[in-house]
Design goal:
The chain contains 19 helices and four strands. The chain has 455 residues and is mainly α. Helix 5 packs across helix 7 and helix 14 crosses helix 16.
Length: 455
């Protein structure tokens, strides 16, 4: 990838946009309050409960400990703790060249790969989500990193293939240990791995050995994170009430604490995972002003209001999780177009037919299951599906570029490329004040509220 200057440029701009003025605002933004507090709990040992696996919180706690940030600073909103934003920011920046690589692995050209990377780089929602102490940029990096690694191992043999198998397994382990929703991508990769093996008549013992290796590594990472979790949280805390009396008897300072009490790791592991599932299910009927229905996400009908600054000289800073409409609406059109073409006239797709089917499956697996979840959900739950939609858009653009090149020549392709790039950039710049929280007048803010539901 790095033989190409555009890949370097995209990576540098990604780092700049994600890391620039990362300390602003010097306040706790949206769900940062939970992740900062949880990281502090690991440092002071007070038990907490979260509906997601512990890996990201452990990473944040490790960085806080390395930088000598105290638990009180994390929980109390001390500006010093904003340094933890570096972790998701770097993950968000890394996603840009990763998408470039994946598109090239699909066999598409450099211009299409550049457009794909630009769609990630210049999407305001992906930018915002990567600039705060949140999980989704790490989740996206692990998921698409695993996909890219799988595409790499398909062309490898011998010990190099086994090296890539280990990389895939580690990334899948990280993925599902961040959020259970990562299982959708894990299942997608497992399915195409199996189908690929059958079509290529790979020996079943080899397939079984590879699958066993992956499953073992994923299990070690998942269970290992809980082992560290339990070893660090030995004192009574706000999460006690979610656990059984037997579990609470292990926590120092709890009313039920018993120094002689014992509970096996496996019993604690099973109980906590059951409680995590139960807690997610118990959120039915809970309301949130910025929650949204799953079917509204492709058109970003309802963004999420992350932060509100002080009114100074009739100007105020605001941060919204609001995507670049060019990216979101364009990719949604691409999904619908790809689905219709694949169903009605698949020959138009040529050799890309299987790739389109794979990407549609990836999109569906990361979108449709939310239809069956009855609890408050937000626009950021769509981000995985959004990236698959962007990849679909790139495949269709590749077909358009091929047609243009044959009918009108290379110059037409170059002109179309630059028109698309400029339109994406204009959409990004127009909504950038709502990504960085730059002060706007009430009139300027209202101009950017294209839909009534955006307020």
């Amino acid at each position: 990838m790095f033989r190409y200057p555009e890949a370097w440029l995209l990576t540098i701009v990604a780092l700049v946009t994600r890391l620039w003025q990362l300390h602003l605002p010097p306040a706790v933004v949206f769900d940062e309050v939970y992740f900062r507090t949880f990281a502090g709990n690991y440092l002071d040992g007070h038990y907490f409960f979260d509906i997601h696996p512990p890996l990201v919180k452990l990473i944040l706690a490790g960085l806080a400990n390395l930088l000598h940030i105290e638990p009180a600073q994390l929980a109390g909103g001390d500006p010093a703790a904003v340094i933890l934003r570096v972790v998701p920011a770097l993950a968000g920046a890394a996603l840009v060249p990763l998408i470039y690589i994946i598109i090239r692995q699909f066999g598409l050209g450099r211009r299409v790969a550049t457009i794909g990377a630009l769609l990630i780089l210049l999407d305001n929602a992906l930018l915002v989500e990567s600039r705060f102490i949140l999980m989704d940029s790490l989740l996206l990096l692990a998921g698409f990193g695993a996909l890219s690694s799988y595409l790499a191992l398909r062309r490898r043999r011998g010990w190099v293939r086994w090296l890539w198998i280990i990389v895939v397994a580690v990334l899948l382990g990280v993925l599902v240990t961040i959020k259970w929703s990562g299982l959708a991508v894990a299942g997608l990769i497992a399915t195409i791995w199996l189908v690929d093996g059958v079509l290529k008549h790979i020996d079943w013992r080899r397939l079984l050995g590879e699958a066993g290796t992956v499953l073992l590594i994923v299990t070690i990472i998942y269970i290992g994170s809980f082992m560290i979790h339990f070893s660090l949280l030995t004192k009574s805390g706000e999460g006690d009430a979610f656990m059984s009396p037997k579990f609470q008897s292990l926590l120092q300072g709890n009313a039920l604490y018993n120094p002689s009490a014992r509970m096996s790791f496996w019993d604690k592991f099973v109980e906590l995972n059951q409680e995590m599932y139960t807690a997610q299910s118990s959120l039915k009927g809970v309301e949130h002003p910025y929650a949204s229905k799953w079917y509204t996400w492709p058109l970003e009908i309802r963004p999420v209001y992350y932060w509100q600054g002080e009114m100074i000289k009739e100007r105020q800073g605001n941060i919204y999780l609001l995507g670049n409409p060019v990216v979101w609406w364009g990719s949604t059109i691409a999904v619908l177009g790809a689905l219709l073409v694949w169903l009605i006239k698949p020959r138009v797709l040529g050799k890309r037919r299987q790739l389109v089917a794979f990407l549609l499956a990836g999109y569906g697996l990361n979108f449709i299951p939310f239809a069956f979840i009855d609890r408050p959900m937000f626009l950021y739950h769509y981000l995985f599906a959004l990236v698959f939609a962007i990849l679909l858009l790139c495949v269709l653009l590749g077909l358009v570029f091929d047609w243009q090149r044959k009918k009108y020549g290379k110059r037409a392709v170059v002109q179309t490329f630059w028109v698309i790039a400029v339109v994406i950039g204009l959409g990004f710049l127009y909504f950038l004040p709502l990504s960085y929280g730059w002060p706007l007048s009430t009139a300027d803010l209202q101009q950017r509220m294209w839909l009534p539901s955006w307020r």
